[in-house]
Amino acid sequence: MRFVLVISAVVMIAVAWAMPGQSESRTQPQPDAASPSPKPYGLGQAPFAQISSASCAAAACHGGGQLGAKGSEHSTWAATVFPEGPADSHARAYRILFNAESVRMGKLLGIAAPHKEALCLNCHSVAGVEPTAAATEGTGCGACHGPAEKWNAAHVQPGWHALTNRDKWERYGFVPTKNLTARVLSCAGCHVGDASREVNHDLIAAGHPRLAFEYTRSHFSPEYRHHWKEQTPQPDFEVRAWAVGQAATLRAATELLRVRAERAIPTQSDQPWPEFAGLSCFACHQRIGNDELNRGNATTPRPPGIAGWEVWSNAAVGVAANLCSEAFPSVSTPNLADVARLRELMNKRNPDPKAVAELASRAVAELDTWLADLQVAEDRGLNTRIPNDLTRKLAHALAANSLNPDRAKLADHDWDALATNYLGLGAMYHAAGGTRAVPGWTEPIRELSRELKFPTGQKGERFHSPAGFGKIERDRVRDRFRELFDATVDHRGKP
Amino acid sequence: MSVNKGNARAIADFLTFSNHQVQTVTTTSHTIVTLVCGAAVVWIIWFILAGETPAEIRLPTDKPITATPTHSNAAIGTTGCLAAACHGGNASETLTGKLDTRTWQSAGTTEVAHDPHTRSYSLLTDHPDRPVRVTAKVMMARLGICTPATEDARCLACHTNPALAHSSVTKEDRLVALRSEGVGCEGCHGNAGGWLREHTTWSPARAGNSGRSGMVALSDIGERAVACMGCHVGAPADESRNYPVRDMNHDMIAAGHPRLNFDFAEYHRRLPKHWQEKSQKVHATSATGAKFDQRLWLVGRIAQAEVACKLLADRAERASQKDARTPWPELADYNCAACHHNIPQPWRSEPSRLGTRPAGSLAWQTIWPVTDPTTSLLEFDEVKKLMNVLQGNRPPGFKGVIEPARQAAARLSDFRWEISQQPDDEVARLGRQVFPARVTADEDSDHYGQLLLGLAAMRRSGVLTPVQDAEFKAAFESINTKNWSEVRKALDVLLAALKPQP
Known about the structure:
The complex is a heterodimer. Chain A is 49% helix and 0% strand. Chain A is mainly α. In chain A, helix 12 packs antiparallel against helix 19 (415-432), helix 16 packs antiparallel against helix 17 (353-379) and helix 18 (390-401) packs antiparallel against helix 19 (415-432). Chain A is globular, with a radius of gyration of 25 Å. Chain B is globular, with a radius of gyration of 23 Å. Chain B is an all-alpha fold. Chain B has helices at 5-16, 30-50, 107-114, 136-143, 153-159, 173-179, 185-189, 206-213, 221-232, 250-255, 264-270, 279-282, 292-320, 336-339, 351-354, 381-390, 399-421, 424-434, 445-460, 469-480, 484-496. In chain B, helix 9 crosses helix 13 (292-320) and helix 16 (381-390) runs antiparallel to helix 17. The longest helix of chain B is centred in the middle third of the chain and has 29 residues, at 292-320. Chains A and B meet through helix 4 and helix 10 of A and helix 10 of B.
């Protein structure tokens, strides 16, 4: 008995002695962690040289002859090898610079040859690829997977798989696209934009489509041909990809706002401020007349006369933030206070670029912390599946997000907000298994798709805006969201 | 951009060639009638005895100086003008459109009886005198302002005498009560405290006196236009008169206020007149008023450009001072349809539609007389410079706008004065010069509307060869139904009917 007591005393002393040491060893990396907030890997472009996609296309490497198979990634990606069926539009990115619309855009912007212009080539080819002839390959391998100067040789060496994803990115410039956060951040470089790759209002006015990116919509587009096989099963993949997409898209949009605000600060700056491309397109681009505009059946979180900042990337991010801990078990709900403050500031009448730049940089840090958490959680291996009814829960939250608390009115009448909530619901519907699994969602989701679609005019002309989207249409959209709200309660009738 | 209902009414008015429908005022008391008639008889006798003839009334030859009253410029209210022996006479003749040298006696009566300006204050209350789509209360709620519209200087600035709009006035019950008169006599003529007694003794050298005393020189067409546009376009604060900023901006439009879409000649035509034009007596050619509309139109358009530039400079200035209520860019300065349009394929930014503007830039409002300012009458360096700043491919920063806008306003002000001194024939010549040979802009209802109202003024002045009503009617209706090819067709016919320049 005494022996046991002595032993336990010794153990306790040992533990007491070890504790501070342990906490010390924990705090040791503090200087690193306390210095700027954690950043996910895969941000921006790695500072290495790009090489031609042709060097990936060796038959023994990625140029095999089996559509969609491992080893045939390049052949699957390139449109020419298997011309039938869906294709990867990235392979066509360079060629469309020659079509009539691009030439017309060039004329309006004073660009004689779009296919030689860095402004266009930064996204429509691999930015900075050598030799320049390799630009003709379009948005080739290196654009998404990172410049291969260093990793081209390394990635076939035996030690490659032992490297962490962060090492692959930081030391070799390789984008570990298996990690969803790294992947979507890489997509967002072009599909949202950054300092060197920017679709601004001038370009859009000249004819470039606006950028409105939602990852799962692009991933599961029937026109897109995948050259890889997803490891994560459904619905886990799509739920996580949607959440990561929300965070990464807003992160890229916020950083772009910071860059634009920064440029507008100098007194003699001729940079646009506000940059209209960062505001909701259809807040302005709608016909106005004698009808009451966007009132009655909808509220808005903005004062009258203010076009919302990035409604597209902001509208549903709160849902992703609130529920991401269920999709990524070790991630807690992120703190997005500065993001909310930035939205407030952008709702002011005359936001000072300096104040915006400062706040946006803090908001980017918040989003980076969140993204880094998501990234680490995924790298640690998410062996646990997502909870059974998470798709339903998220769908319910999205339907609730689109309505006022009393569900009598839409929470935000802006088309971008409606479309963002609809796309989230669509992703959850698809992830859950579609009409087989959740038949009650099918009709309202299809009708939302019809309502939000840009119309065709009486003379068959196509619109690039929700022409004629008025009170009646908004009423119908509201009703569909309500139906989805009701259809997504659980068996006890609870959210 | 649709042309609002006002135009539909304009068609009706226009086609009947009538003055405004006039109501007769029934005076309830015979005594008043007797007194008024008595006063009129006395006045006529005095008029004859004094031997004053219309020829002695002269147009001012000096540029009117800005109103700087020498003593108290307090408001007295409309009732102060309405004594039966002053401007409260029997208006039965004036109200039927008969204007003569005695019209001044019933000026006040006419205004009170039939002038739309008297309703302006009621529009701020919960009981507007005419139907409104959005009440002031709803607008204020949307803007998140807790003050009632009847106490907010931004609303009062134009919905009553601007000099009564400042919140400091609320302390004086007498003045607060005056607000409910709406835009009464003093709203346009200026506060009468400084000249109430004196102005009865000024004849004939009225213009000079009015400037010094604080009475607005409305007899000058240009000054009159500027006075109207203080509210109908907007104006900076005027401390000498205790006027607050008058700025109906995009925030208010977004909250439900109708946009300001002013055409001086057209509004002037539709206003029930309580005065006789002095210029009609002086310029022999104008005696019948034949070319008067032409003058109104041209001077009015130039004044509008001037006032808009002045307001723009003020908006930029306020934005630079970080005024919380001043947005920048101020979207109300631009053509509504520059942004508010659907985006059909092919895109609006067809090279042919852009003219010299870069794609993605916002077209400025069509304040210039009918055509592109840089290729017409207003070919001034100051105006060109301003347009280059405004229609660059970026929304311009406020810093770069203040000076060019100020300079353009100053240049236009001088030009307005020069034009208004020209004889009718010269004004007519310049006016016709402004019209293009054919319709130039594509699918811009503001431009079409302006062109059409200009042509209507030309028609009233007799410089349009006789054409059928059908063309005007077709043009107005096609604007309302957005049938642009029909609008262009009708306008081209009307433009071809403009008589060649002598």
